[in-house]
Amino acid sequence: MAAISITNPGSNYFRFSAGTKIDAPCIGAPVRTHFSNGLPFKPGSRFRIRCSVKQGERKTAVEAETIVNGQIAEVGNETGKVAFAWEWPPLKNLPRRYKLIGTTSLAFVVCNMDKVNLSVAIIPMSHEYGWNASVAGLVQSSFFWGYALSQLPGGWLAKVFGGRKILELGVLVWSLATALVPALAGFFPGLIFSRILVGIGEGVSPSAATDMIARTIPIEERSRAVSFVFGGLSVGSVLGLLFAPPLIENYGWESVFYIFGFLGIAWFSVFQYLSEDQPPVGATRLSLMQPKMSQKPLSSSLGELGNSLKEVPWKEFFKSKAVWAMIYAHFCGSWGYYNCLSWLPTYFSEELNLDLTEAAWVSVLPPLASIFTTSFASQFADNLIAKGVEVTVVRKICQTISFLSPAICMTLCSVDLGLNPWEIVLILTGGLALTSFALSGLYCTHQDISPEYASVLLGITNTVGATPGIVGVALTGYLLDSTHSWPVSLFAPSIFFYLTGTIVWLVFASSKPQKFSRTE
Fold first, then answer.
1. Which of 193, 404, 501, 518 has the fewest Cβ atoms within 10 angstroms?
2. Neighbour count for residue 318 (Cβ, 10 Å)
3. SS3 state at 168
4. Is 318 helix (H, G, I), strand (E, B) or coil?
5. Is the pTM of this model over 0.85?
6. What are the helix (H) ranges across 289-420?
7. What's CA 363's distance to the chain center, in Å?
């Protein structure tokens, strides 16, 4: 929109109207807005005009810029003419990488809402269909079958096509599969298949997000970017556990699958409007430029795809001690995380004698506390790196906190200390909240050692990391039927893996950049 002034320039008072241009014959003339002439400027909007005029034989140009709500918009220049640009919406000029990080975080919010809905709905579903703990564990673990299968393909596809396209596809697949659960619940193979599809859709998302972060975020912002994106998982857990119980009680367990599935479809639709045609982050904005990584179009032939798969230095990955440390650490962290995510509502309901709503709301506390811990951990890690602390040391500190904290708290809850239920809840909440330090530890290491292959490396570690979801969740149900002991079935295995994971991480982990050259 162009704006102009027409009255008495010598008075230093400009009246604005839309769609025209004017001469600005005076230098440094202050400008005040006149709101009755059609421009939608808010009080407090101000303009700064720098201009020069033609005097005698001298010919000069005019340049102007407008500052509206803190945003500076450049406008065209023409001798003796001034025009004002009006930018809307306000986030239009937000850097592309921030838009991508924000929308990706929202996708992860929906991701965990669709993951935790079953951990609450499984209680009324078990009553309706007569499932015991072993069958319930099988239903919940089926998600991780698809999750594990999609990790390596997801990492490779993200590298070939770019994380954005793979994320879009993943969200659409898991959302549609979530909405199909009520229709397939009475047919057990169909229910298992639908949860496998949810796992496949969600399984490609971490690698897709890692690819986007590695391409666009400099190392001094990386801890915060990773924490913000993957912190969406904690927000999703909170929202899912908060909204699922009242929805189930008022509209039936089917409602959570319909509503949460619709949210993912809505996200997919809105994400199409996030343009890709903005220029990439300039070199002056990055202290560490990422390697140039080409993306092949979706029309690539199968031969080209096969060649791109062969170009990945798979053997070199497995020669690295740092990669093996990431693999085992991911397995150990996932064992505790997935088992608690799947079984805590049931633990609070059966062991602590809370009803469905109370059990679900209490289960909100660990992910809710994780939201705040994540913010602190990311700032803590980035500040240490900015002060010159070696990146490897920072990653080791954060991951050690992530592992030892829940191990200590689960040990306290496993022994008979005479703790009441609410003391147990608080101890578990504190321990599980501190596991979010892993977002500034393990989850940054893939990008630290190789931005080019970050998505593939995460696919490798996440494949192994998904195994506890398949084995651990089902094994917990089996042990619970066999021993009727929550400390033995839920806490003891997690404590073991947290402790051994700490040792392996401290000895072998490294964040030093590595060049993985493919060997013939």
1. 518
2. 11
3. helix
4. coil
5. no
6. 302-310, 314-317, 321-350, 356-386, 391-414
7. 21
